[in-house]
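Re: [help] complex structure
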Amino acid sequence: MFIELHAQSAFSFLEGAEHPEAFAAEAARLDMPAIALVDRDGVCGAPRLARAATKAGVKPIVGSEITLADGSRLPLLVEDREGYQNLCRLITRMKLGAPKGSAALALDDLEPSTAGLVCLTGGARGPLAQRLAAGDDAGAHRVLEQLVAFFGRSSCFVEVQRHYSREQEQLLQRLVTLARSARVPLVASNQPLFARPESRPLADVFTCIREKTDLDHAGRRLLTNGERSLKSAAAMTELFRDLPEALDNAGELALRLAFTLKDLGYRFPEFPLPPGQTPIGHLRELTERGVRTRYGEASSLAARARRQVAHELELIGRLDLAGYFLIVWDIVEHCRAHDVLVQGRGSAANSAVCYALGITAVDPVGMELLFERFLSEARGEWPDIDLDLPSGERREAVIQHVYRRYGRLGAGMTANVITYRGRSAAREVGQALGLPADMRDRLAKLVANWGYQDPEELLTKHLPEAGCDPTSPRIRRFATLWTRIQDLPRHLGQHSGGMVIAAGRLDDVVPLEPATMPGRVVVQWDKDDCAGLGIVKVDLLGLGMMSVLQDSLTLVRETGGAVDLAQLPPDDPAVYRSLQEADTIGVFQVESRAQMATLPRVKPERFYDLVVQVAIIRPGPIVGDMVHPYIRRRRGREPVTYPHPSLEPILRRTLGVPLFQEQLLKMAMVTAGFTATEAEELRRAFGFKRSERLMAEVETKLRAGMARQGIHGAAAEEIVHAITAFALHASSFALLAYASAYLRVHHPAAFYASLLNNQPMGFYHPATIVKDAQRHGLRILPIDVTRSQWLCTIESTATGLAMRMGLRYVKGMREQAARALVEARAARAFGSIHDLARRAQLDRDELETLAAIGALAPLGGTRRTNLWAAAMPHPGPLFADPPREVSPLAEMADVERLAADYAGTSVTLGPHPMSLRRAALRARGVRSARDLAGVEDGARVHVAGSVIVRQRPGTAKGFVFLSLEDETGIANVIVTPPLFARHRLALVSEPYLVVEGIAQRQDGVISVRAIRAQGLPVLGHHIPSHDFG
Amino acid sequence: MVVRVSRFACVLVEHFDAAAIERCEPALRERPLAVLNPRVDRPHDGASTARIMTTVEANAAAREHGVRPGMTETEARARCPMLLTRPWVEEYVASAHHALLEAALAVSPRVEDGGAGTAYIDTAGLERLIGDAAAIGRRLVHQVRAIGLIPRIGLAASRAAARMTAVNGPGAVTIIPPGRERATLAKVAITTLDLAPDVAVTLGRWGVRTLGELAALPREGLAARLGPAGLRAHDLALGLDRDPFRPWTPPPFWEEAQGLEWEIDSLGVLAGVLETVLERLCRRLTAVSLVADSLEVRLGLASGGHHARDVALAYPMSEVKPMLTLAVLDLEAHPPPAAVTRVTISAHPIRTLAGQGGLWQPPAPALRDLVTVLARLAALVGAGKLGSPVLVDSHRSDAFTMFAFSPPSDSAASIEPRNGAGASAGLRLALRRIRPARRVEVETIGERPVRVEARLVVASAGPWRASGEWWDVQAWARDEWDVVLGDGALCRIARDRLAGHWYLDGFYD
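Output below.
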């Protein structure tokens, strides 16, 4: 009986042309009881094959081809766990021992790691065939003997293949002779690159992508024919009727290869415990201590918390997860000890144990969050704890700590499988088909909006729109190939923050690869695969706002203040006032234009409202049409109803509108009878870009489930619509939003300084942030070579704390030069401009920029006199400074100063450009942003300002939203699609606009519906805007 | 009163690339026109390049609507929906510029090429011929308008001052009286000067916006800070121009013609005339050590029309005989439709470097003989059928293409032994191919052939399967079989899997 032992999926990147799942399905269709996936240099596809094959009743066999130093490839199959560990170690050794992309092993390297592995000699690229093809029969014989010596006679097979090729047949005869003379058994395989013959074109396209050519020029590098599909036992029997033993050997060998990924042998690291303590005991002790600190001793909340903690600990103990919590707690403690701000996000926020351990910062008991969303017995996998850390160096330090703690081979980042999608797929397929460049561009632009399509629909509907002839054979091929290539793996990337750790060596569990980033290794599986195989994962994610918060706290501390993020007053009225007024520039998650437009309508009054606010302005709820119903219900304009009575308990808190993922999961369970596992599938379909196909499958299941429960028609549609658009639970983010709003209101100097020091981040340009800070009364001091540091700092002045702009805002200034400047200044004050230039080693451009922005003023002179002096080259260190000449240059006017500020620092501390035009604008009847507050609904108004945001959300049916900034604040403008079409150029490209329109007032939000728009004549500079992002 | 004549005039045609097109299509002059050229952009993902049509020039009417060079076509159209566009054509600009210089030359023998659309004229002494500065200006306007361009003229003591006044002057002709350069130019923006970017940035920072402000800066201070570039800018601001005058002379004209007093309708007779004309042309080329790499033969016809042929020469040459052969062969293949009354031949001249054949190069026929023979053969069998057959890199059986013959180069590669690796796998059977393959009738059992043209197949091997070009209309798929027939013949037959036909490919020796 024949079993295919050498299948290669698309995880043999740019060779195989199908998902591992397709092989599983085809094997099942062909009644093949087992199949081995032997991708090139890795086991990336193994978990996916294992899942699909097991489901289809096919035994998955694990293996991998190993690239040898002579360029040949040796297929190895795994017999038992030891063999698997050997394979992982071999691949790891190969990958980590060479630069990315050029890994290979010498044949001798295999010797110590062959136990539990079975070696085939490969197809045309195998070490024997390569030598025989080159006429080196003796070499082939030598290699075979070496392989027999390494693997043993019973674990080494000469592989024979037949793809109807004359040359291959000649080679096969010589292989058979060789095998017989060396007394090595034969094994037949077809080495399929695709499950079904229809996928041959895609394999050819991959060849073109790999060889950087197109189909017309790839020549004999393409496959000779379409015979590299998975073949049935009958077809193989017919092909090998002269070598029946080769087929029988394949079947017998498959029986021997008993290893499955269930037998990984993964253990998570053991946490070092106090003597005599058990993990759960230690966890209980730590948790109880935490509960006392968090909740106190005797309150009803504390009692509820204790009950919840006991419930959670009981489950954690039953699932034997105490060690996992201790490890995460350990990382968090390390952060605390090294003054790195850390906070758990995501579903961990639903756990009272996490809160008590200090992993998360939101009280799930008080918030009544559902613990099962985080951890449920049914799921049978590790809980997912994501930790937010300050981005940049501090996060990297934590990652390196984990490597140190668990060993370089004990920890790794999870992979991110980069797949073929939309535009890039269209470009590559178009290129392989040899389509002209302009057509490729047109197709690439168009496909971005197509999503998943039936190729027929693509052909009849969309391609003619793109100006392509759908009857042309290449265009027809493009449609099919583009559809087929979607979601196929392209290469392995690195997940942004997911880390897996193991007791002992992680490379016993999964092969490791070097990451592009030095000092990091990546495992060959993505986070879902790791989760599916029960491997502990901790996400260490970098968040710019965490850096801002941490820097703010440091600055507050340095200026004698004290803020503890864990102890922030929960209901600070000033914070909620600023949120209700949408005064949120720089505030985490709620600073975008869309957030600002809804904040005054939602009017958050307590923390839960903020959680809702953070959750609703996301693609999910917006697509699902949830925002407006929620706001209408919140304002009492619409009755609270439920799509189905059974949903009332789930949706009561959000007024009948599903806003959170966990609500959606519960809805699926209640309305469609989903099991916890099925709900988990639904969560995965939401959670990652694995595929829209998965989403479609889930949707079908959902409808079927609801039909079974008797839910049909509009109610069913409403539920499906709601479920397929989703929101993540957002309490941890809401806390960061609250903390940032709190610091902004109560410690503006520290907050704005930190925000400016962590740019670029968030939604607004520094110019807008600076003006916002000034409008809030913060005194911002200009860049000054006698006082400024590299970063923005805080200074105490007679009128209170002020922020000093840092040298990092000087355009073109090297950090090294700025630090030299600060150091030289500390040694001795600068005597003159030339003294500064010489001692800080500034180049002429840096010196002139400093002069132009007024940063040299404290050394004497005005901007222009300093520019005149700075332009004079210094004769050298042996000579005296050139004498100070009288400058012949005229002093800068206000407008010139403004222009010099923007040109040299991107920001200005002087008057807003609009204020220079205010008198003239007032004469034209143009109102300031502040004056807009007093106008009636429906009044005709004129507003003007610098365009700081242009947005055209996909969900807004072509409407465009603009934010115009002037010296008093920000005005919101709504542009209808016809107006946008008429004035597209002005609206898109003019930095300053005057807009005439009708004031619209809705729940305190004032916006102007534009009727006319035109550019304001150039003011010499403009503030960069956040456009269509 | 006669005003003393300034020494230099500047003739300037604004928006010259657009003006060059308007010269060819005068109807465009009053309408908004943009000249476009594709700009190649590399998208961020680096996957492929995108060509974006970008405005390189706009005429005055288009500029009134806000169209400016550098805008994309979409931007320009958004500003001016009735915008007309034309592609940028180098020949239009070059010939318009040439015409402009020639027009200037008609006024003064001393003309300097000032770059596209600009000419400087030394007007010294012209007052006695033409009149005062205004009259010279008017004459220049008249001459330039006559060639279809609309100029602005500035007259001043230096070329720089003349140019700036031409750019900024109120009318078509502006004259700066002697000694008034600095005062007249004081209000002109320094952007007129075309300064190096770093100098322009520094002056911008200094708040220097006009030539007057620049002229007012201390010269030593400028020299210390900006070096020679600063001094030059200062000179220009003062209306001074220290560069030497470089007179322009028209480039030589490599063309010879022969008018005929009688009509020629035989190629043999025409060849005699062509030879005479070519001899004159080649003598001129040889005299200045030039060779021609292509010829244009233009024949005036008795019917009143023209017959023009470009004759590419296989290598740059100045010998009459091969040129004549090539020209005659070309005319044989493409004869004029009527009798010939005039013959004009122009040459595209290039300079060649002398060289010699390699020491190891085998003796070969003279290059010119070879070229002539090849041209004759190509005329006989067709250009696509001349050369060496080369196997195409394809799985398709017997696919080949013709590789055009080219004279041997002197590189060492040509004498290296051919790499025989891969051909060493022992003796192989030779296949004697039948071209084109012959259609045969084949009986099969299953897929396996049992009779070929009623001859019994006694042994067979196969199928050897190949398919390809599935992406286009030439998709093919075939199975080959090696069969031994009853009479002992060993042959290769093949089945076209798409059409179902069988073919005899050839016999094995």
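The mean pLDDT of chain A is 87.
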